Amino acid sequence: MLTNSLEAAVAQRQVAPDRAQAGEQVVSVRSLRKRYGNHEAVRGIELEVRRGEIFAFLGPNGAGKTTTVEILEGFRHASDGSVEVLGADPWHARSSWRERIGIVLQESEAEPGLTVRECLQLYAGYYRAPREVRETLALVGLEEQAEQRASALSGGQRRRLDVALALIGDPELIFLDEPTTGFDPSARRAAWELIAGLRELGKTVFLTTHYMEEAELLADRIAIIANGEIVAEGTPQTLGGRQLAGAQITFAPPRGTALAELPATIAARAEQEPSGRVLLPSVTVAADLHALSGWALDRGLELDELEVRRPTLEDVYLELTTTNDPTRS
Amino acid sequence: MVRPSAASRGPVALLAHQVRFDVLASLRNPRARFFTFFFPIVLLVIFTGVFGHGNTTIDGVHVKLSRFYVPGILALSTVVASYANLVISIATLRESGVLKRRRATPVAPALLIAGQAIATVVIVAIMGTLLLVIGKLAYGVGMAPAALATIACTTVVATLAFSCVGYAVSGLIGSPDAAQPIVQATTLPLWFISGVFIPTTNLSSSLRTVGSLFPVEHLSSALQLASVHSSFSGAISASDLLALAAWGFAAAAFAAWRFSWLPSTQRADA
Prior knowledge:
Shape of chain A: elongated
Number of domains of chain B: 1
Helix content of chain A: 25-40%
Radius of gyration of chain B: 19 Å
Order of helices and strands of chain B: HHEEHHHHHHHHH
Distance between the termini of chain B: 43 Å
Strand content of chain A: 15-25%
Number of domains of chain A: 2
CATH topology of the largest domain in chain A: Rossmann fold
Structural class of chain A: alpha/beta
Largest sheet of chain A: 6 strands, mixed
Largest interface: A-B, 36 and 35 residues
Helix content of chain B: over 70%
Largest sheet of chain B: 2 strands, antiparallel
Number of strands of chain A: 13
CATH architecture of the largest domain in chain A: 3-Layer(aba) Sandwich
Structural class of chain B: mainly alpha
Strand order of the largest sheet of chain B: 1-2
Oligomer: heterodimer
């Protein structure tokens, strides 16, 4: 079991971006396109992942995430553009290239008939310089299950085995395709600890997910794909900068007050909901609040339910991925 | 000191490594255990128990039917262990993502396929020995050493050929649920017209012709020929071996063209 707590591992990230900036490029994607018949699943995306970072590739189902990852893993070939992973084109890469990557697939069951230990022994045999089986079992916290049939593991344990199988070759780069989809909250948290711990091993991690929370917590950098295009890219701190800058002030106006009676600068931007609450998008929150409260004090009124709300990354993500989706209006 | 990995000790060590785990997985699979080991023995007991005292003619030699059924059931057991077992297990492994995950490792695809084929030979060798021992001890069906050598040679060729057919057919199947019925539909009629359940001499000439188009008949007839001869040259059937090999090569070519490591739902551009 990884001994670090999730918080400690996340805190460690604060120093990581500098290290990552300096690092060499491990994944480099230029103008990548992928067509299936008339449908273009990936429409000219650019990606860069540097050594030692956890890179989160985020997007809703059907956005082109898995297609992109499978191109990077060498399972599909690009229709157009250039892809380089660990200095090679994955589609033409050789066995020596596969020695250096580890893959946790979105859906894969255990090797039938084998115990957890035997699964790892089998895969260890495929690599020239594998990690030790015992140590790898300890790393993912499956020591107690070592002699159990792999097919008898719980969902969370099965995922740990998948991670162990991806780690057994001691790869430099690990792909994790939606590692926590379908997990309950405690299994998800355990998986996050495991992923955060990969950073300590010095691995580069390419993580796909459709949970913003997961990306925000684990990743050094995040790219969001929607409808085959990258719609945002940055660190968890800078992602969606413009969208995050705006806040929304809401309040219930005093009874019998019309919108037009509010200060002119505010009335022009405000909107009233059917419930009567007033919504005011604001980029100058202090000034707007000052004007609003001054107006209320002058009239001896109270502003009920006054609230200032800033969007979360989750809101930004939802906005970015829905506004760019032509199937939704 | 950690032992060097199989891959670092060369392709032969890696192949042995793969065979070892494939045999282990196969022996632990309840379905494979039932159909490969239990089922043929039950059939042998039933057929020899019911018809064993009758007589038939193999290659002009007049014998008891028990001498017909031991090699016949051995043929069935070989086909079940190779063809039937591989069709079902490969379709299952592919659709559950296991093949894809193996493919994501540095191991060569040809080595994975060879490992599975050789593991099947090992399983067939275990089962064949068991059937021959039961035949000898329970029914007094002994074989001359030359006949045993011929049987060994024929079953190895047949196992490899039927493994290729298994790989070819598994590529046509979209879901593991479809694998079992397809296996039954493609094997059950052949047991009746290929000299496994009924001597081909009892069949109409048109059914005999249909039977000889398929590989099962060539396997059972080669094994039955061996069982009544005591010299290698008398026991070996070159034409049957050639027919089996031809099926194997054709199936291998088809599989090379059609086989996929990815689940069928992910094969949009394979």
